[in-house]
Amino acid sequence: MTPMGLAPVDIVVEDETIVWVGVDCDPSEGDMVVDLAGLYVLPGFVDMHTHLHLRVGQYSVADDFQTGTAAALAGGTTTVVEYVTPDPGETFTSALDRWRRVSEKSRADYAFHVCIPRVTDDVLDELPGLIRQGITGFKVFLAYPDRLMLSTAEIGRVMSVVGPAGGVVFVHAEDGVEVERLRAEAVSMGRKAPIEHARTRPARTEVEAVSLILDLVEKTRCPTVVVHVSCGETMELLAEARSRGLPVFGETCPHYLWLTERQLLRPFEEAIHYICSPPIRTASDAMKLWDGLCTGVLQFVATDHCPFFSEARNSADSFDKVPNGISGIGARFNLTFAGGLYSGRFGMERLAHVLSTHPAMICGLYPRKGVIAPGADADLVVVDPFGRTDLGEEPLAGACDFNPWEGIEAPGRLLAVMGRGEWLWREHDLSAKPGRGRFQERRRLSHNLLAHLLGKDMAWIFCP
Q: What's this model's pTM, rounded to 2 decimal places?
């Protein structure tokens, strides 16, 4: 996969960088030559939505930067973008220092988004400085009152600062007030089964929140990503907004593409492992999300990787007490390959776009990441499209003791993964050491890349 699309080319790597892409390369004596005839080589994947150092109440997520990035590399992801979430009253500087310390164990390259749990003049004054430091993504919430939820006026203020400074706003879009009302009503009536998680977060709460966000995008013109899109109606709103030229983008996740709310009807001790926010929805919603990936309404498949050990979930006696999150950091390639390329929905180029190129662009990592071209980091993924992968094998499954993809043998096989010129994974052998990952400063979002993501320009670089 080159900037001109799929082509039978030679790739020359020196040290950490791709230095040449072309045909009929004449290697010098002593050069290492790897023959990959009959296989596909894609740019290393970028997962733009991970949680590897998150605590919810008294429980921490199951994977950390060491185990989580081992699973990521086994699944072809060479760069993760982690959300930094300050504790109540904690400064951005303090939170970032904490994340920098734990990320020193990362086997993959990494970058940061920052969550904004409150808005003050001082907070807004800090944001341009963070962008200059290479942290260009900021997450805001319309959910979780008393913890993370902001008002639309506050989110508008954030957008008014972030957009002109070259940053991007990422939005968790659910109507938090209505969700909390429905949750309280269900619990008061004794409805505590896992399926109530979906019933108290109906699709309309996502759709209404996205409508509010689109109004703010229209006013501020701030580049904005709606994360973990879960329902077809949201996708339709995004399509209409993009047709009007609004700089708004959509991310979905493997669990919304492959799982349905029927998982929440399982026995309590099983169903609680499928609780995430927004909830997994219907098969019809999943089909519409696949359509959105095909047509370009949705540009990214990320994981929102946030698994919790069974101990944390089993301690709950009601859906509203279960820590939310599903694993997927190692399974993302195979699940997207199976439903996209293998099912005939789209080709290998589109697969590379949604897993690598477009995430790298919106996160300010392109063209260092997300492309096979001279000057880019030598992050390469070797794919056998005719192979098969057991999604329960280690380290692909991560550290959690529950894997929603256990028992699935998926089409497609990753034979090798290179990161910055070093083979990190080759046929079950993980050679990447903890700490080899490197922090990636992010560039401000350029007008050219924004135009490409909107499908308005630069079609010669990648076929949208």
A: 0.96
